[in-house]
Design goal:
Layout: H1 18-21, H2 23-43, E1 56-62, H3 68-83, E2 89-97, E3 100-107, H4 113-126, E4 136-141, E5 150-156, H5 161-177, E6 182-189, E7 193-199, H6 201-207, H7 211-221, E8 224-232, E9 235-242, H8 248-252, E10 255-258, E11 264-266, H9 267-270, E12 271-277, E13 285-286, E14 289-290, E15 292-298, H10 304-319, E16 326-333, H11 334-364, H12 367-390, H13 397-426, H14 431-461, H15 465-490, H16 492-500, H17 506-513, H18 516-533
Antiparallel strand pairs: 1-3, 1-4, 2-3, 5-15, 5-16, 6-15, 7-12, 8-9, 10-11, 13-14
Helix pairs in contact: 2-12, 2-16, 5-10, 11-12, 11-13, 12-13, 12-15, 12-16, 13-14, 13-15, 14-15
């Protein structure tokens, strides 16, 4: 009896796509990166505009009421000649008026402005001994932090302007200056209180006292000095003698000199002393009333929204301790612009999620596909946050605008991949076969369609100057978001499809091809054939 063995038939073995073999690893890595991106979002600075290293330094000079000609000869021109030796200087522009001058130094965009600022300070310090001793010189680097981020106004119908000025300078300003992220607080407006000494010429001649004698007596008497130490119980105790005047009568009692008969001559004997106010050359109003303004400046690397929230909270606390009748109102707040931009990005993400989910459910009739698309947008945005943090960008009008604009582009990659997977599944393939076939078919077109808009925004990165700084932030944000969406579409989307895209039976396939999509496909097919049959229609 012989046994004849039949040849074995090789059964094709279905191989999974690599995203299916590494499903857990892909999901874990993407989720971890997204969580880290959400953490980094809380660490990114928030500002209205991108961080801009303007190649400009402003030198401000104040010197009382010195005439313009003397200001130019003794101050402006020496400073211009001194800073000409600073490396990287492009050109100098100066404006001189009575008692004031401003010298603007413009440098090339490739210079290090921190070192340049040190070089400018060293150049001005080298000519310091030749400048008038009364000249007050300030040197500042131009940044967006040089402009106030918020402002408050103090008004009152019952409290005088001098008192408002004192409250702004001695109550509000110190409290706000100590807040984290606040660089300085500038007070404008109001009436600055002072005491005026009005000499009587006849009494000056009679007493043989000159104006310099009067000024010398005031400067030597209106001070706090120490006559020495007192030793007590093995301790040295510092003693202080105060000659500072607190009111007009205190100034009037200051002694100028002693007459030949030994009688002390006081300031009140030869002059009138009375409370007054400094001359105001600028009128400041708020809501139609005279006002005192508080301008709050932030530190360059601080968070605009966080600083604004701290200032608002501190102002509310101080309000409770102020005299009744004082109104404190906010007249400018940059954080409102940033918050509006953040809300626009949030709205764009929500609208994109809702529309994408609705379209996928309507046409593909699979809730799993809408969940996948809904996970792609927040994951892409979270990964973009990491890159923005690495590149030193901030949340500003340009980066937030780029995120809002990229949401519509980001969802396209996920929808294309999902739709192709579902189409192959509905054609009778298993889920694993559908994922493999869909990615093999769509990979090259997907890469091309994603790279195309990136190439459009790429030239913006090469723009120089202020325009380049602004549009570079926009281009980087959109480019990073698109590259991230491409990477997720080729990894994250097929991995989620293994979990959320259900398998379809033959009956389900027949329902799918005879429903709404079938009619839409037939209409589309007829239009394409008609257009191809008449090539002239396409031109």
């Amino acid at each position: 009896m012989s046994i004849i063995a039949k040849p074995s038939v090789a059964v094709p073995i279905e191989t999974e796509h690599w995203t299916g073999r590494h499903l857990k690893a892909i999901i874990f890595i993407v989720v971890a990166i997204a969580a880290f991106g959400l953490y980094e979002a809380s660490q990114i600075p928030i500002a209205v505009f991108p961080a801009t290293n303007f190649p400009r330094i402003i030198v401000g000079i104040e010197n009382g009421v010195m005439p313009v000609d003397q200001m130019q000869v003794t101050i402006t021109r020496p400073i211009e000649e001194a800073v000409n030796s600073v490396p990287g200087l492009d050109h100098v522009v100066s404006v001189t008026s009575r008692g004031e001058a401003e010298v603007d130094l413009f440098f090339r965009w490739n210079v290090d402005m921190f070192r340049t600022l040190q070089s400018v300070n060293a150049a001005i310090a080298s000519i310091g001994p030749t400048l008038p001793p009364t000249a007050n010189i300030t040197v500042n680097r131009m940044t967006f932090a040089a402009f106030p981020i918020m402002g408050y106004s103090l008004t009152s119908s019952s409290i005088p302007q001098t008192r408002l000025w004192e409250i702004a300078n001695y109550t509000l300003k110190p409290e706000l200056n100590r807040l984290q992220g606040v660089s300085m607080v500038v007070v404008q407006g109001g009436q600055v209180p002072e005491f005026q000494i009005e000499p009587d010429p006849e009494k000056l001649v009679e007493s043989q006292i000159t104006i310099p004698n009067l000024l010398d007596a005031f400067s030597k008497s209106n001070l706090i000095d120490s006559p020495g130490f007192i030793e007590h119980n093995h301790q040295l105790v510092l003693t202080l003698v105060s000659g500072q005047a607190q009111d007009a009568s205190g100034i009037g009692q200051m002694i100028i000199k002693t007459s030949p008969s030994g009688v002390p001559i006081q300031i009140a004997d030869v002059a009138k002393v009375y409370a007054s106010m400094q001359p105001a050359y600028t009128a400041v109003t708020a809501n139609g009333k005279p006002a005192v303004l508080l301008n709050i400046f932030r530190q360059p690397e601080s968070n605009t929204v966080a600083v604004a929230n701290e200032v608002h909270a501190e102002i509310e606390r101080i309000k409770r301790a102020l005299p009744p009748g004082i109104q404190i109102s906010s007249f400018y707040d940059q954080s409102d612009l940033v918050n509006a931009s953040i809300h626009s990005v949030r709205d764009a993400i929500l609208i994109g999620l809702i529309l994408a989910a609705a379209i996928l459910v309507l046409f593909l009739r699979d809730w799993g596909t809408s969940i996948i698309a809904g996970l792609v947008i927040p994951t892409t945005v979270a990964v973009t946050f990491i890159v923005l943090r690495i590149l030193g960008e901030s949340f500003n009008l340009m980066t937030l605008g780029g995120l809002a604009a990229a949401v519509g582009l980001v969802i396209d990659d996920a929808i294309v991949v999902i739709e192709n997977i579902v189409r192959h599944r509905d054609a009778g393939q298993t889920r694993s076969q559908a994922i493999r076939s869909a990615l093999a078919e769509i990979r090259k077109p997907l890469i091309g369609s994603t790279v195309t808009p990136i190439v459009v925004f790429l030239p913006l990165i090469a723009i120089t100057g202020v325009t380049g700084v602004f549009f570079r932030a926009l281009a980087v944000t959109i480019g990073v978001a698109l590259l991230t969406s491409l990477a997720l579409a080729l990894t994250w989307t097929p991995a989620l499809s293994y979990l959320m895209v259900r398998s379809t039976s033959t009956q389900q396939h027949e329902d799918a091809v005879t429903g709404l999509m079938s009619r839409i496909t037939q209409i589309y097919e007829r239009l394409i054939k008609a257009a191809l049959a008449r090539p002239w229609v396409l031109f």
